[in-house]
Amino acid sequence: xxxxxxxxRYLMCRPTYFAVEYAINPWMDPTAPVDTALAVRQWETxxxxxxxxxxxVEEIEPLPGLPDMVFAANGGIVIDGRxxxxxxxxxxxxxxxxxYRAWFERAGFEMYDPKHVNEGEGDLLLAGDLLLAGTGxxxxxxxxxxxxxxxGRPVITLxxxxxxxxxxxxxxxxxxxxxxxxxxxxxxxxxxAVLRRLFPDAVLATxxxxxxxxxxxxxxxxxxxxxxxxxxxxxxxxxxxxxTIGVDLSELHKAGGGPKCxxxxxxxxxxxx
Length: 273
Ligand code: ARG
Description:
It is built from seven helices and 15 strands. With 273 residues, the protein is an alpha/beta fold.
């Protein structure tokens, strides 16, 4: 558990233009109705939850025609004041990349550009000094080597195998500098062995927790904000001493997203986590 759990800086994007207009993951059904106004209210609750926990939230202006831009985690990854921009796999999201890049540049981060498909914090999660990097569906394996050069952190490649858990942040949540929660069967046998070796005390999620995007959670080291439907996972986390805060992001789930997808962590310098 982390003692200094306040004062994180997050970047979020209001879902003003949120919709499900195309299907680039198995959760998306463009024929099913989406309530954008409800998505905005749910998103505002998530934002307020962070503020109530003592965190700071920066906002990037949403752009019309980019219905997935609400998923700020895919806008980049920021560590030690360095921001690595993204390159989306799917053309439908391509125009989000320069918008996020411009935001990081204006905010004064040192900019780096991706060399291959890279979907930011959707697939790249900092766990202590390790950079956990997913591949298999979106972020290219070749990009992992590039990441290591940019951030100078050991990069641990994790192979995702279930299309429902297409981004690392849908299958694994970093709880604090030393521990994670994950769904074992979302990973290849070799990656499961790596996770067991690195995190022998990890919280293992059930298939039901994962299906409600329980692992798409945001932890500040003490408080874990997660979908309120993930009740078993919340119980397991409380047993380990974490405080859990349940939020309802049902509309955003229709696009295959949850709390973490809506949240990008801005790490200014070495000291700020
Ligand atoms: N519809 C979006 C996509 O498929 C959802 C992105 C969710 N973001 C995340 N960090 N997992 O790209």
